[in-house]
Amino acid sequence: MTSFKNLLPIILLASTGLTHADEGQWQPYQLPQLKAELKRIGITTSPGKLGDLSRSPLGAIVALPGCSASFVSPDGLVVTNHHCGYGAVQRNSSAAHNYIADGFLAKTRAEELPAGPNERIYVTDKIEDVTLELTQDLKRSLSPRARHDEIQNRIKALVAQCEKDPSYRCSVPSFHRGLEYYLIRQMMIRDVRLVYAPAEGIGNFGGDIDNYEWPRQTGDFSFLRAYVGKDGKPADPSPDNVPYRSKKFLVVSAEGLKTGDPVLLAGYPGRTSRYKLPVEIRAARDVAYPLQVAALQADIDTIAKSTAANPEWTVRYASVEKSLQNRMKKTRGLLDAFARKDIVAIKVKQDAEFRTWLKAQPGATQIMLSELDRTIAADIALSNEEYAWSLATNSELLKSAHTVYRLALEKQKPDAQREPGYQQRDQPFIKARLTRLEQSLVGTVDQARWQTALQHYRALPAAMHPAGLDALLPANNGLDALYRHSQLANTAQRLGWIDADAATIARSDDALLQLAVKLNAIATALEERRKDLDGKLELVTPRYMQAIIAFKKSQGKPVYPDANSTLRITYGTVAPYAVRDGILKSPFTTVEGILEKDTGKKPFNSPPKLLAAIKAKRYGQFSDPVLGTVPVNFLSSADTTGGNSGSAVMNKDGELVGLNFDSTYESIAKDWYFDSAITRAIHVDIRYMLWVMSEVDHADNLLKEMTIKYK
Amino acid sequence: MTSFKNLLPIILLASTGLTHADEGQWQPYQLPQLKAELKRIGITTSPGKLGDLSRSPLGAIVALPGCSASFVSPDGLVVTNHHCGYGAVQRNSSAAHNYIADGFLAKTRAEELPAGPNERIYVTDKIEDVTLELTQDLKRSLSPRARHDEIQNRIKALVAQCEKDPSYRCSVPSFHRGLEYYLIRQMMIRDVRLVYAPAEGIGNFGGDIDNYEWPRQTGDFSFLRAYVGKDGKPADPSPDNVPYRSKKFLVVSAEGLKTGDPVLLAGYPGRTSRYKLPVEIRAARDVAYPLQVAALQADIDTIAKSTAANPEWTVRYASVEKSLQNRMKKTRGLLDAFARKDIVAIKVKQDAEFRTWLKAQPGATQIMLSELDRTIAADIALSNEEYAWSLATNSELLKSAHTVYRLALEKQKPDAQREPGYQQRDQPFIKARLTRLEQSLVGTVDQARWQTALQHYRALPAAMHPAGLDALLPANNGLDALYRHSQLANTAQRLGWIDADAATIARSDDALLQLAVKLNAIATALEERRKDLDGKLELVTPRYMQAIIAFKKSQGKPVYPDANSTLRITYGTVAPYAVRDGILKSPFTTVEGILEKDTGKKPFNSPPKLLAAIKAKRYGQFSDPVLGTVPVNFLSSADTTGGNSGSAVMNKDGELVGLNFDSTYESIAKDWYFDSAITRAIHVDIRYMLWVMSEVDHADNLLKEMTIKYK
After folding, report:
1. Is the ipTM of this complex over 0.90?
2. What domains lie within chain A, and their CATH numbers?
């Protein structure tokens, strides 16, 4: 039981104006527009400096595949979440060295372990507006589709040009639904090593049970290191490589934060849908999500049933199941949020206000709006068919077959004309994916999952079925034969087809390859329709977003683009939230909360040395003066989403004070609608991380390597 | 979902020093000692005025049987909890007029309904220290038992003297475990009428499910009126009676309170055990409570099983079951609290500090301490036997038999020498009890409950069995015959024995009467041992408490006596509490919380007119400026216990701002140990009461009758 002292930080909120929204995942260049807001919440560092990629802190923020991270020493030391470094821990674990259960600490650089051939660290070093280059001199007479193709070709050319230096990986994502395009250049470090991860009972304390939950007491952190060739450039993993000299790195503040303090958060948020029209939200709420929840649950149940007989199979599907459960909780959370608050009604009201404003503007806005509505309606319909297709082909082996056949077809074209994802530059990733599949595949389980998905496909409304697909799909009792007459479950066989040409594949007697060849026409038709529609969307949605930006500007508000896996900065305040009448969630948890939850059994199995340190109140210098103990996790109102895992949480001076790793269940709907009253991101408190490193795991070498400002 | 605004009141706590304890159920005369404390929390009214029984507010505080209440008009209008006025509502309800479900409102005095012959309103008008009269001139040579008897005789004489005026009911409870005695004189008003009770869906919203729970949204209030004869003196119920002229009554403040505001609370707390020795707590925790929980659960299960076949029987045992469930939750709550926090260890430490201090004082303290420990050990052992006796005789019919036989025996003595509880003055209450039994009795259920209790009795350690009892108890298969050969289940038969003499009863062929006659020797032996032991306790516990008071005084702390159903005042602050790591319970609930919980089904079945008013946000003038809506219940740190139900909750000026009605589950252990960090009492907010009266039930006549200060 916590004492009265825990209430005091809440009290300190008095000094902040928390009724303001902290919504916004801002592009670095936008920060100067936010000067007044940043000042209001207490950020003292100049917005210009904060948004400068060539300086710390922003220059220290890096990406991992699907995660965010940051440099915390000049020698390439990277801190991220435990769940982001988990693959590296898992890869190095064995019965003899159970680093998952026991944790891992390299006491010297020589002891650092290869994180695996697929691990990457991406260091963004250039963000360049290329909108003009992509859209200038486009003939007005071009059809939407021709315009789309031309833009894609220009993008491919830009990427190819940028990647001439093999150190870089480049991309040209669109912002504001096609209004702007930026060329993002990232140095891609390929030699990544595992430095330190606490025991799973710390790093994943609470596991799936506590996923999206608060209160939370998870030490979700780990350390990697970037290695490069002796020339300082990215190189394939090699013992000769040397630590990357990261001139930009974050200073760590051991002082931590208190309730009401401002936070800055930088990372790579994946995808949001904040500017969707009411009709899009309604379609998700009433059609897409309920269908997805049903199919996901059926898939989860099928995996459970078909792996039940064999514990080894259960292990093999553990990460698949975890990922499905996570999507399930997220989708359920969205539906719960839609049920709790009428977000559609709010959006309808906002949309009506916008349209009223727009109609008062000069120009042919009516035409734009009706075109927008028509195109969005077509997009919803096509998305439903695409979902139906994904259900109908929900077999990992069939998908592999499709990949190799499609790759063979694309290889018939010059590299620059190939479909993105099937170019030369993509081939290593395809190979890695087809190899990695063996870790989570059992033929009979894959077949059972497909069977279930097909049942859900067949139950969909007829309008959702892509034309011609039904006739090509196997009968209910046809899957056995398909799997019996396919060798694709064998990794060597699967990989063997990567270099085959299309004709050879078409002649093969592998039943799943044969089916993939037959289905390719349907897949291609869907892709062509998608490109046609994207062409139309690219004509209308940029104009819509331009109008939205003008509308918001008329209200004095800047506009951030939806998340698209590019570097963003958000800010907020350490803050509680009201979960229901009479109950508040307070913004800090403490090590004593670990004692409350620990059961000795997974996922609530803290290492004994951790429990001993807590019970002995061996807080060291990491005790919070208000809480009177070591804080573990904290809440802030910063705006995050998937991909923000591992993002640096910084104080007003840009010093590292925590790592983002989750958000609360009540926040899940934020991808669609940011409700500032209840949206909270969950962070690891830097003091817990430092305390575990100091008092529990004795990671003195790392504590020494980082620049830590103590009180 | 509540908005950010709800967090603001919590924030206001900043201005108060909540880390101080608000422990203490103070006797009125003690208030001036608390001047500094009262000033600290913001009470502006002078402590002298607050403690003056002849003035408002204290003079307006009255008692009901087992509850507290207060006058709120000069015409005898009394406000108390819904559950305290429930008997009156129930009594007047019928299929045609379901006042329980629909509520009841007398629009004129003529419409007010008789509350029932057992309803009483007690107006305390004199509290007189009679310690000296009881203890002076007691010969030192008296044995402890002779001394005890003499004190009891002096008490009886004082009570008899006081009750010569038939308007009064008098008592002489001991304070500080026998250190002091006060004569309490209460005017006993016997004509009580039901004025207003909201629908059960308001007054008992949440029912047993929400008992001891927070958040809570219960409108636990009702109104009664005191009637007296035309001469202004208490009289038997009669249409000729007139409203009592209550010169002292509470002014109502419609302004309510906000988080951090001070509260005063006055009422009649029943019983606490704050000065028990560690050994007594250990005995309760390790022996008495676990046994009680097991026996209570078995009793509850037996009632459920033996009434299952007959819905009418279920109804008849509803209130018995409710009361058992309440005791169960309370006892479980105590055990949970003992498990959560090592209260014994805290008490051991406090006791050790006290003993160290005591040993440094002049005087023969060692002898006192060893005598205390020996006597307390004997008390624990005897209490265990008394509990065993209560299990062995847990038959309502057997208890009735015992009562009438015992009454007959006592009637052989002059009234002044009879045992308290069996004097002339007690006879109407005995008769009422034996009559009321018919409302909650079914012979076969009573027999089944006794059978279960006997099994638990037999499983108790042998040392707990009173000497000679086992041989007299019926065999397992003997109960059938006992019930078959008894007429006591018949109310007329039962009452018929009240006037019988002992010899007649002894000769009766009623099997249960025969058993009661046989068991009387065991009962008497236990009572005699209790008196002997009380005599010893009365010698040693007052000296112990005197030393405790001196010890606390040396620390600058005044000492309040344990609760004993006499008028007490406590104070506190409107305050949240931390329920576990990361979760705060905030101190106000709102009408929107009713919408969150309402299911349309009992006990979450709000009247449609209430729901409509909430949905329409028809808050009238009762909206809280911070919450932006009507508050329903609130928490304070005031020190309460059973008996405090219906207690007036007052603001710093002594104006009524709420009614106490419950405390949180985490607070249950407060009867033994007051943990200021988590102990919270639950109150109805006066604004909810006034809002329901104004917007929902239109009790305009009562709103007009009361003196209400609006903002």
Report:
1. no
2. 4-120+190-267+567-709 (2.40.10.120), 122-189 (no CATH), 360-547 (no CATH)
